[in-house]
Amino acid sequence: MADAQFDVGSRLRQVRSQAGWSQRQLAERAGVPSSQISTIEQNKSSPSVASLRKILNGIPLTMAEFFEPDQTPTDSVFHSPADLVDLTSRLTQHAPGASGDRTLTLRQVGNARAHNLQILQERYEPGADTGVDMLEHASHEGGIVLSGEIELTVGEQVRVLKPGDAYLFDSSLPHRFRNTGSEPAEIVSACTPPYL
């Protein structure tokens, strides 16, 4: 369940300080402008999934560890919906001047790092987007669209996927997911090694 009180800026400041780095040092490690770290820590802007992942790569820290620092990994084989780790719903995903919910929710099954496999339940509200900055990471990923429509860009290829459509690609290619439709889109995906 999403925690509306989660303070992304304070959490980023906390993990940066624990590492003993200045904003500039983290920015250099992550390959982002130091002003981006500053505006996030001051809660003047909310990072996209792609931007936050890029910053966390500089620490290194997974999104599960960022949002659920006190969670104790279990070796459980079975997972109820309440057990899934919420990776994103606490990020504000509203576009400036836009109305409506642009939430992107990614929920992870179990301890991805321990299994070297990340399985996600993904939900994109209309207008939700992983971010203008394309995702790129040393993995492979695939998924199946369960409902709605999702525009997937991989390198120079762009396609709108509908229920039953699937994808599989080398994640080192720049990629982006956007719900350009009017209904929520739901996907089940897998990535190895884990990225988020």
UniProtKB/TrEMBL annotation:
<dbReference type="InterPro" id="IPR001387">
    <property type="entry name" value="Cro/C1-type_HTH"/>
</dbReference>
<dbReference type="Pfam" id="PF01381">
    <property type="entry name" value="HTH_3"/>
</dbReference>
<dbReference type="Pfam" id="PF07883">
    <property type="entry name" value="Cupin_2"/>
</dbReference>
<keyword id="KW-0238">DNA-binding</keyword>
<dbReference type="InterPro" id="IPR011051">
    <property type="entry name" value="RmlC_Cupin_sf"/>
</dbReference>
<dbReference type="InterPro" id="IPR010982">
    <property type="entry name" value="Lambda_DNA-bd_dom_sf"/>
</dbReference>
<protein>
    <submittedName>
        <fullName>Transcriptional regulator with XRE-family HTH domain</fullName>
    </submittedName>
</protein>
<dbReference type="InterPro" id="IPR050807">
    <property type="entry name" value="TransReg_Diox_bact_type"/>
</dbReference>
<dbReference type="InterPro" id="IPR014710">
    <property type="entry name" value="RmlC-like_jellyroll"/>
</dbReference>
<feature type="domain" description="HTH cro/C1-type">
    <location>
        <begin position="12"/>
        <end position="66"/>
    </location>
</feature>
<dbReference type="InterPro" id="IPR013096">
    <property type="entry name" value="Cupin_2"/>
</dbReference>
